[in-house]
Amino acid sequence: MSKKNQGIDCLYKEFLSVLEKKYTDYDLIIEAYNVAYEYHDGQKRKSGEPYIIHPISTAIILANLEVDQATVIAGLLHDTLEDTDISEELIREKFGEQVLFLVKGVTKLATSSKKDRKINSYRNMLNCMAEDLRVLIIKLADRLHNLRTLNFQSREKQIAIAQETLDLYSPLALKIGLCTIKNELDDLSFMYLHYAKYNEITETINSIYEKKKDSINSVINNIKNSITSVDFDINYVQKHIFSIYRKTINNNCSCSDVYDFYYLSIVVNEIEDCYKILGEVHRIYKPKQSRFKDYIALPKDNMYQAIHTTIITDHGALVECQIKTKKMLAISHYGLLYFLKNSEYNEQKIYIQKNIEHILDLEKSISNNNVFIDTMRSELDIVNKKIYCYTPKQKLIMLPLGSCVIDFAYSIHSELGDTLTGALVNGSPVDPYFVLQNDDTVEILTDENKDITVCKEWLNHARSDHAMVQIKRALASISDEHEEKVKYIQITSFSKYVISNIVNFLIVHEYSFSFSSDMSKRCILLCYFDSPREVDMLTEYIKKQKDVAYKVFYE
């Protein structure tokens, strides 16, 4: 290898050290470094340092994540197509079609304005992600190093880059479970956006730790000494700064009101040990009932698993405990990357891919750049409050606060939303506009003929951008005359659930079935439907049915 600029010798040695630890054969990576050095020769960063420092730092981040060699090589070459005169043919010839695809996936596209260039490049990344999620991983490593050196940019650029990271990149890292990168992206971005608040939280954390470190160590030692039936490691871990800031926003409180700046991390060998430890910890300390989550039985969308419980210490303090296996701990840090490295986790890889499909659908559905980027920001918003609901199979679905059945249906699949007629929420029939609450279990009811049931009124009730986009798409495919038919389909398709529910209610409460007039029945139906027109349509439909429940109600 030829002699390099003395200013990057130390960084290059670090790179070699990482390669030696993580890879058995890395000759092709070294060749890629030489190509990147040659083509970036003479270029400088804002700091005045040689430009090669950025791609090699990006590659070090990737290598530490133990990604495959093609991804590291693409990290080294990720700016060559944009900033040098290297040809695609040379990259293809030396490193293969796969590396060329990854490099093109993170390359900024030439457009008429800087704003369009950034948005189109983001669109390009999403398109390539649909085929290969490693494109996102390279982009996240690239963005992380840029944030680490953001102090050399103007204040205006610092704010723009930090906000863009929080809005568009950090949430994508969360969706694929790459939290080791996400947390640093969050904290660095937050520091540049709200430096005073960042320092305030940091100082509060340090102050609280100084006051509580003795009691913290006491709890740790008590658990260590009291539990001998299970092998485990226990440590006290500080939560990252931005997550604490989010708590103050979501709970409308000050930093000093947040109690869980730290948590106890308890790591065991096997899944059954998680539950043994949980029982033992609850034997030693009383748990706070409202603060228990079993993410082992019900994993998050990014496949995160753990048991979260909050205990009450002898002094009345609240301490959060997170119980994981060693494998779960690795997944909590690396998410998708863990599954990519292990071929037996193909099901998990497919699941995470599906988890971001609706994000990729937005790119295809919205042509206007301004509308697209605003929609993406809203859809990926991780600061605003969310609610968590469940499918009948107990899959966890996260939705914006105020979401209704329509949002839930579209979050699962567009066809489910298009043919939605109502739902059973915790076993009770509701219409598509029913607003969901935390922990609701929702079973979607659809038209038996799979007819489109979407109507314009849905736009007034849906809260998620994904649902809004899908509703507009479906509306574009139906005529105005279809509106009345759609209304009829919605009402009649789940009327049997409504009437059965009314009859059951009357039976339980021993009400008489001897109604003197249709008006009595109409009044009861109006408890379920706001519009008299809907009641008329439902009444007409029900009278034609022969189901026992309908006959009890109407005869």
Notes on the protein architecture:
The chain is of the alpha+beta class. The protein is 57% helix and 10% strand. It is built from 27 helices and eleven strands. The strands form three sheets. Strands 1, 2, 3, 4, 5 and 6 form a six-stranded mixed sheet that branches. It has a three-stranded antiparallel sheet with strand order 10-9-11, sandwiched between helices. A hairpin with a 2-residue loop joins strand 9 and strand 10. It is globular, with a radius of gyration of 28 Å. The model is unreliable at 503-530 and 544-555 (pLDDT under 50).
Record field, number of beta strands: 11
Determine the mean pLDDT: 82
Tell me the fraction of residues in β-strands, as a range. 5-15%
The major sheet is characterized as: 6 strands, mixed
Q: By helix and strand content, what is the structural category? A: alpha+beta
Radius of gyration: 28 Å
The helical percent reads 55-70%
Shape: globular
